[in-house]
């Protein structure tokens, strides 16, 4: 099951857990109210998994690739990690399925506080278009993930502030309806 919690305010190494004290865990229902969807799948059978195929068909995830983020596999590793950790949004959903390793997705709640979502092998997440978020590895410095898209991939990240974008406006309206 997914592990998520409110983060502390520390500027220490982002690869550390950064749990707020006292601990403030976040459950799946609270993530759903933010538009974040989560599945636990069997990563060992990702190439022929009927459950993954069902999700892909229902949500029109027609395109996919696999990325490995580690010093020896990703060109410009340090630069890419810094870029992934900059707060940003996309105008499309961001879908990631962890096939090996682990890392963190951080998302903003309705009050603009950071929630950290620990992702490990078998975890699949969909972040809605317009949500401010960021990603980092954990202290193991390795993750292998499937990236999924509806149609052709769009890699554009819009750094904060990006409130002028229609995707952000739609997301803010969604949050108001779930309040």
UniProtKB/TrEMBL annotation:
Coiled coil: none annotated. Pathway: Amino-acid biosynthesis; L-methionine biosynthesis via salvage pathway; L-methionine from S-methyl-5-thio-alpha-D-ribose 1-phosphate: step 5/6. Keywords: Amino-acid biosynthesis, Cell membrane, Cytoplasm, Dioxygenase, Iron, Membrane, Metal-binding, Methionine biosynthesis, Nickel, Nucleus, Oxidoreductase. Ni(2+) binds at residues 88, 90, 94, 133. Pfam families: ARD. It catalyses: 1,2-dihydroxy-5-(methylsulfanyl)pent-1-en-3-one + O2 = 3-(methylsulfanyl)propanoate + CO + formate + 2 H(+); 1,2-dihydroxy-5-(methylsulfanyl)pent-1-en-3-one + O2 = 4-methylsulfanyl-2-oxobutanoate + formate + 2 H(+). It is an enzyme of class 1 (oxidoreductase). It is a peripheral membrane protein. Its EC number is 1.13.11.53, 1.13.11.54. Its cofactor is Ni(2+); Fe(2+). Residues 12-22 have a biased composition (Basic and acidic residues). GO terms for molecular function: acireductone dioxygenase (Ni2+-requiring) activity; acireductone dioxygenase [iron(II)-requiring] activity; iron ion binding; nickel cation binding. Binds either 1 Fe or Ni cation per monomer. Iron-binding promotes an acireductone dioxygenase reaction producing 2-keto-4-methylthiobutyrate, while nickel-binding promotes an acireductone dioxygenase reaction producing 3-(methylsulfanyl)propanoate. One of its GO terms (cellular component) is plasma membrane. It comes from the Eukaryota. It is found in: Cell membrane; Cytoplasm; Nucleus. Its main location: membrane. The keyword Heme does not apply. Fe(2+) binds at residues 88, 90, 94, 133. The keyword Calcium does not apply. Residues 1-24 are annotated as: Disordered. GO terms for biological process: L-methionine salvage from methylthioadenosine. Catalyzes 2 different reactions between oxygen and the acireductone 1,2-dihydroxy-3-keto-5-methylthiopentene (DHK-MTPene) depending upon the metal bound in the active site. Fe-containing acireductone dioxygenase (Fe-ARD) produces formate and 2-keto-4-methylthiobutyrate (KMTB), the alpha-ketoacid precursor of methionine in the methionine recycle pathway. Ni-containing acireductone dioxygenase (Ni-ARD) produces methylthiopropionate, carbon monoxide and formate, and does not lie on the methionine recycle pathway. Also down-regulates cell migration mediated by MMP14. Monomer. Interacts with MMP14. Belongs to the acireductone dioxygenase (ARD) family. This is Acireductone dioxygenase. The gene is ADI1.
């Amino acid at each position: 099951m997914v592990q998520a919690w409110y983060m502390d305010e520390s500027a220490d190494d982002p690869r550390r857990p950064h749990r707020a004290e006292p601990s403030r865990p976040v459950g799946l229902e609270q993530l759903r109210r933010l538009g974040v969807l989560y599945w636990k799948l069997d990563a060992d059978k990702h190439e022929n998994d009927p459950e993954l195929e069902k999700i892909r068909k229902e949500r029109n995830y027609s395109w996919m690739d696999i990325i490995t983020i580690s010093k020896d596999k990703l060109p410009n590793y340090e630069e890419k990690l810094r870029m992934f950790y900059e707060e940003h949004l996309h105008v499309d959903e961001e879908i990631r399925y962890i096939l090996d390793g682990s890392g963190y997705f951080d998302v903003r709640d309705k009050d603009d506080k950071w929630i950290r979502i620990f992702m490990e092998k078998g975890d699949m997440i969909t972040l809605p278009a317009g949500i401010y978020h960021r990603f980092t590895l954990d202290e193991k410095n390795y993750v292998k993930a499937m990236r999924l898209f509806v149609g052709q991939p769009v890699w554009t990240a819009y750094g904060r502030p990006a409130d002028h974008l229609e995707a952000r406006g739609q997301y803010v309206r969604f949050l108001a309806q779930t309040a």
